[in-house]
What does this fold into?
Amino acid sequence: MVETDAHEVLIENLTFRYPDGHVALQGVSLQVARGERIALVGPNGAGKSTLMLHLNGILHGDGKVCVAGLDVSGASDGVLRRVRAAVGLVFQNPDDQLFSPTVFDDVAFGPLYMELPPDEVHQRVARALAWVGMEAYARRVSHHLSTGEKKRIAIATVLSMDPRLLALDEPSAGLDPRARRSLIELLSTLPQTLIISTHDLRLVQELCPRTAILDTGRLVVDGSTEGILADEALLRAHGLERP
It folds into this structure.
């Protein structure tokens, strides 16, 4: 295993082919510094979600993937446990992440997986719920909550593991304007490195100084959000619209 803290994320020449032969990523290289906020944008099928799933070893392609100082490529189970504690992956549909009897149990799942002592588990759950403004929901049933509330709880489930990196897949999808605004305000307060895969370019404009465009599995542009969003022809060429 190789460790390096030069970058929070270091991806070099990553290529991934699904079992049906579809090539989802083609030679993608990307570097993300600690504390950076970067958006991944592009049309459906561009490879954004596939790239995100490489960050904690759910998928393994050809090329190099280092996250939080850990080489994910060919990592052992022990290293993958460390990677998955360092990378908080938040899925587009929060119901994919919430499966326990109560909100407390959902948020406690990660720390329990890390084999932390009970007192620390309780402290982490309380801290994570306070961070997302959901302290009063600990004994609620997750599936009875609104979509916006579920998204906050899903974020708390990864914050309870004290990750260095948050990778969020379409975080604003399905939210009404008030819940969307609340989510943006929450994400703006988090100190972690953020990688956000989204079609919501207004969210990108507010949260991410840097944007990368993926299309047909290739990284076609990586630069300042301001410059990319000002280039209407570029956006249109890759299935995007100016906010």
